[in-house]
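Input structure tokens:
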């Protein structure tokens, strides 16, 4: 693939992503956000209690909340004990409580929650994911990182993040599919190239994530991976939009082209061979 072909592919991919963002949140993102809204936020103390009792817990909710989500706690499952506040109504005459009533915490009681692994029922909504097989381009992308002096390691300690850029080192979450790993690595390499110098201080978190995910989208598309709504959903969580994406198009094109050239793609169909 020559430089002109790379530019055309990059332009087409960026426009495709921009159009998706213009259309608003994807259905999978809307479902995901609705699910998140149903889960209460736990205090640090309760997070520690959950970790002690069920270290591998990932989605926690009470018995009735799981029912509302179409899932049911299996018979015989042991609940995870947390502390729930006990509230008492008190008279409060101020503008913050127009009904004249406020609540204050007067104590705590034991309550039980359950992890999704203790339930059966309707599948939870999930964000879009990258699918397919990057083939030879996975090893080439890893080799490109190494040639740029960037080491790549794996660690479960970064969960729930899938990847972390640390300036000369990238840490990936083990257990991802090959397609997800490839897209995540491309995202983190983009951070290494674009956001480890002067531009880091001159950009916001939203701008950096928009640029890195756009590069990952372009590179993943170049090797014929199915990106589905993954990039749109990711950027939607950061409240990014098409305007912000297009403002960074020059940086995205330059970085995506740099990575694609290193992958030595002669034909996008080669990725599946």
């Amino acid at each position: 693939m020559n430089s002109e072909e790379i530019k055309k592919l990059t332009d087409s991919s960026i426009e495709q992503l921009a159009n998706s963002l213009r259309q608003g949140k994807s259905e999978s993102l809307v479902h995901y956000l609705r699910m998140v809204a149903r889960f209460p936020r736990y205090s640090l103390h309760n997070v520690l209690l959950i970790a002690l009792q069920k270290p591998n817990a990932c989605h926690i909710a009470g018995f009735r909340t799981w029912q509302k989500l179409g899932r049911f706690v299996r018979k015989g499952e042991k609940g995870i004990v947390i502390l729930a506040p006990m509230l008492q109504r008190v008279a409060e005459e101020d503008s913050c409580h127009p009904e004249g009533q406020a609540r204050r915490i007067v104590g705590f009681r034991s309550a039980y929650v359950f992890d999704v692994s203790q339930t059966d029922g309707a599948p939870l909504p999930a964000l879009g994911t990258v699918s397919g097989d990057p083939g030879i381009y996975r090893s080439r992308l890893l080799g490109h990182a190494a040639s740029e002096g960037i080491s790549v390691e794996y660690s479960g300690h970064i969960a729930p993040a899938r990847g972390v850029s640390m300036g000369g080192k990238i840490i990936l979450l083990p257990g991802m599919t090959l397609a997800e790993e490839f897209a995540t690595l491309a995202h983190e390499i983009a951070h290494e190239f674009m956001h480890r110098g002067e531009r880091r201080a001159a950009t916001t978190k939203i701008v950096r994530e928009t640029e890195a995910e756009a590069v990952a989208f372009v590179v993943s598309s170049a090797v014929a991976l199915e990106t589905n709504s993954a990039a749109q959903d990711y950027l939607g969580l950061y409240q990014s939009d098409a305007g912000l994406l297009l403002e960074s198009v020059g940086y995205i094109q330059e970085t995506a082209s740099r990575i694609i050239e290193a992958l030595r793609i002669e034909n996008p169909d080669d990725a599946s061979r």
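The two ends are 16 Å apart (CA to CA). The longest helix spans residues 3-22.
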